[in-house]
Specification:
This is Metal ABC transporter permease. This protein is α/β, with parallel strands linked by helices. It has ten helices and ten strands.
């Protein structure tokens, strides 16, 4: 029995490592307690995935109705178009339905009514694997693997060359930091190695996404405030990854979306206001009130800081 102990113990830790990785991925999309089946079509349409090989995608929500359970509708007819290469920002109070929109774009669920379209075709016409290859996400909290920092970036496109990994890290403003580590790109991160700050992890996620080179980008902005220097580095990295890519930003700080082509102000599953930053300010509605309130908060933060 004692002889069995070693191998069994080893298997146990492998199992637990796999479980952790699975849970991490599910956690990334907030899917922990949900296992919803969406089916691939019998004759899937092809979809181009990388920006390097094709144009940016067009994303459209056409009168989308959706709820997680039959008893409660969450989105009550949401429509918008993100034209190729344009940036659409979604703002609104907590629970308004912002993250739900990104989950429907990835087709983690099917809509009740209306449609989500990419390149003019319903997302239900594509193979899920292909659709998700065409969309990249920079989540609020990036989950890193217990691997080298180089692997964590290369994961964006397994098979990328070390030069491509380095190029992505440079664009994401994380290369110099990695170079300063004792083992450079080979430095282990996570439980068994280096712990990265929130801002560093986010830049690793951005480098990973740059490497993946998707035609659509979803940025789920972190709620937590970062210090000014980190904030500037992150903004520069985000600019690199969203440049000429169709981008959907779930925004918490309005200062980061003033340049969006269209801002959707969501409330209780509806688009309440829409327009550019200037147009929404001029309209003097809810967005203008949020802007005034956040401006005051920013000033208060700077005074405290
Ligand atoms: P926040 O800014 O707080 O992240 P949000 O605007 O992204 O909020 P969503 O996460 O899209 O809001 O949630 C919209 C509504 O759907 C909320 O009322 C929420 O309780 C509900 N909801 C979200 N996920 C689930 C789920 N898995 N099952 C049931 N209801 C859910």
């Amino acid at each position: 029995l004692l002889q069995l102990y070693g191998p069994l113990n080893f298997l146990g830790s492998v199992y637990s490592a796999i479980r952790t990785a699975m849970v991490d991925l599910e956690h990334m999309f907030g899917l922990i307690e949900e296992h919803v089946e969406v089916a691939d079509p019998e004759h899937p349409l092809p979809i181009a995935t990388r920006l390097a090989e094709s144009a940016p995608a067009e994303v459209e929500f056409r009168d989308v109705r959706f709820g997680y359970g039959p008893e409660r509708e969450i989105l009550h007819g949401v429509s918008f178009v993100a034209a190729p290469g344009k940036k659409v920002a979604i703002v609104g109070s907590t629970g308004a339905g912002k993250s739900t929109i990104s989950r429907l774009l990835f087709r983690f669920y099917d809509v009740w009514d209306g449609a989500v379209l990419v390149d003019g075709h319903d997302v239900r016409d594509y193979r899920q694997k292909d659709l998700r290859a065409a969309i990249g996400v920079v989540p609020q909290d990036t989950v890193l693997f217990n691997e080298s920092i180089g692997y964590n970036i290369a994961y964006g496109r397994l098979g990328a060359t070390p030069a491509e990994v380095e190029q992505a890290a440079r664009l994401a403003q994380i290369h110099d930091f990695i170079q300063s580590l004792p083992d450079g790109y080979q430095t282990q991160v996570g439980e068994r190695g280096l712990k990265l700050s929130g801002g560093e992890k986010q830049r690793v996620a951005i480098a990973r996404t740059l490497l993946k080179d998707p035609r659509v980008l979803v940025l789920d902005e972190a709620t937590s405030a970062l210090d000014t220097h980190t904030e500037q580095e992150i903004q520069a990295a985000l600019k690199a990854v969203s440049a000429s890519r169709t981008t959907l930003v779930i925004a918490h700080r309005l200062s980061t979306i003033v340049d969006a082509d269209e801002i959707l102000v969501m409330g209780h599953g509806r688009v309440l206001e829409r327009g550019t930053h200037e147009a929404l300010l001029a309209a003097g509605g809810q967005y203008a009130a949020m802007w005034a309130a956040q401006g005051a908060e920013g000033i208060a933060e700077r005074m405290v800081g």
